[in-house]
Amino acid sequence: MGTEHDDDYLDQVLIGGREPTRIVVVDPDPHWADRFGALAARVRRALGEAVRIEHIGSTSVPGLAAKPIIDMLLIVEDVDDEDAFVPALVAEGFVLRVREAGHRMLRTPARDVHLHVYGEGAHEIQDYRDLRDWLRHDRADREMYAAKKRELAEREWRDMNYYAQAKDGVVALILAHARAWRTGERA
Fold first, then answer.
1. Which residues form a coiled coil (predicted)?
2. Pairing of strands 70-76, 103-107
3. What is d(CA 93, CA 66) in angstroms, rounded to the nearest whole number?
4. What DSSP letter does each residue of 24-46 carry, written as one string?
5. pTM
6. Going by C-beta distance under 8 Å and a sequence separation of 6 or more, which residues neighbour residue 112?
7. Nearest to 19 by CA among 7, 37, 36
8. Rg of the chain in Å (alpha carbons)
9. Among 18, 57, 50, which Cα is nearest to 35's?
């Protein structure tokens, strides 16, 4: 979240290389929460019931247009200890896509799920929660975010990471609103 990318960096961290893409943003689907539930059950089956997993991203916000990709947050003790989670998730049908400092991302072969893995205490965990919770609460920011995503979906991208990076400005603004809300400075 909020990381500056260029082709050289992406070539180092993306398993399988950059993938030119066209982003599709669709109207909200009330079944996204159910889909997350089924996916979370797969992750728990692979890693055990004590696993901490949350629905994040736009599909976790009722009423928000989104890419039809379920984003999930998995919190592990040590993200660098891939042996503790990657083989079990691969056996459950996930594919390791991103290996970067402090972050791993696995996805389904259909590319309709992104499982973001962070170690305990990573600041990105609270960023994802703040963004999700504020967008669930604030209609104006939800609409602003949807409009930005639809605008950016009109372009072709050298990789989905560039689309995500293009949203950084609006995400930073929304996170500022979310943090003010969390501290009681904003209703």
1. none
2. unpaired
3. 24
4. --B---TTHHHHHHHHHHHHHHH
5. 0.94
6. 68, 69, 70
7. 7
8. 16
9. 57
Q: Which tens digit of pLDDT belongs to each residue from 57-85? A: 999 999 999 999 999 999 999 999 999 99
Quickly tell me which residue has 């990076």 as its tokens.
165
The DSSP annotation for 64-123 comes to: --B-S-EEEEEEES-TT-GGGTHHHHHHTT-EEEEEETTEEEEE-TTS-EEEEEEETT-H
Tens digit of pLDDT for each residue in 134-178? 999 999 999 999 999 999 999 999 999 999 999 999 999 999 999
Record the tokens describing residue 91, joined without a space.
């056996």
Query: Within a 13 Å sphere around the CA of 38, how many CA atoms are in the beta-carbon half?
Result: 7
| Residue 142, both tokens | 């939800």
| 65 vs 112: CA distance, rounded Å | 15
